[in-house]
Amino acid sequence: MNNQKADRLDKLLSNLGYGARKDVRLWIKEGWVTVDGKPATSPAQKVLPDQVQLEGKSLDHPHGLTLIYHKPIGTVCSRKENGRLIFADFPERWIDRKPPLSSVGRLDKETSGLLIVTDDGQLNHMLTSPKKHIAKTYSVTLDRPLAGNESEIFASGELLLEGDDKPCLPAELTVLGETSASLVLHEGRYHQVRRMFAAVGNHVTALTRTHIGALGLDACGLGEGEYTVTSAQALLELVLAESD
């Protein structure tokens, strides 16, 4: 979202993660901050993001930040979980941005693959809302050979997972090998893929999310831990391409 609202200079720089508001006063004194090419005069000066430069450089994504990210195994999406945060793969300054960067949904610690990270709350809601029915596709490796009836069970809309009070929405399973498959989900429940296979007596040994809607991990060309910056609009066009 392109925010053209004028804001205090110190608040703008602090919200973009450059430092505390008290630091801005020093930077102004040192002449490091300019507004429309002229030295800034006060931390309280009302500015638009595109008017400001710090040490001769334009501000870093002042109108919002959205990433397409390849989450590695062993990283966690939430600051409440133990483990290496996904944010460690981004510039350190980004973790101090306000509003904060958040993952769109979560992948558990042992799952790798496609993840969207954004500070755009409206975009996050749009991509996670059950009403949107945005499909997520997973590549699954199993501990034991498939029995042969999993596709029918998952597609039935009658599979009730332990602890849930409603059955899973129909899901599409494509068998790729004796112990490998691709699974398309149209909802997001806690550890859903692992629990679905547990419900049919199997165990997931490796799990990768390969697609969010029409957006595919391979097409992004990202190695594990790599990301690319995009805009909310461009991302939506990629995700929703098939439904246009």
UniProtKB/TrEMBL annotation:
Do you know which InterPro entries this protein is assigned to? Answer: PsdUridine_s_RsuA/RluB/E/F_cat, PsdUridine_synth_cat_dom_sf, PsdUridine_synth_RsuA/RluA, PsdUridine_synth_RsuA/RluB/E/F, PsdUridine_synth_RsuA/RluB_CS, RsuA_PseudoU_synthase, S4_RNA-bd, S4_RNA-bd_sf
Q: Does the keyword Isomerase apply?
A: yes
Give the catalysed reaction(s), semicolon-separated: uridine(516) in 16S rRNA = pseudouridine(516) in 16S rRNA
Could you say which EC number(s) this protein's record lists? 5.4.99.-
**Any idea which GO molecular function terms this record carries?**
16S rRNA pseudouridine(516) synthase activity; RNA binding
SUPFAM superfamilies linked to this entry: Alpha-L RNA-binding motif, Pseudouridine synthase
Task: Print the keywords alphabetically.
Answer: Isomerase, RNA-binding
Q: Which Pfam families did the record assign?
A: PseudoU_synth_2, S4
Q: What class of enzyme is it?
A: isomerase
Query: In what residue span(s) does the RNA-binding S4 domain sit?
Result: 7-60
Q: Which GO terms describe its biological process?
A: enzyme-directed rRNA pseudouridine synthesis
Its family remark reads: Belongs to the pseudouridine synthase RsuA family.
Quote the function comment for this protein. Answer: Responsible for synthesis of pseudouridine from uracil-516 in 16S ribosomal RNA.
**Name by which UniProt lists this protein:** Pseudouridine synthase
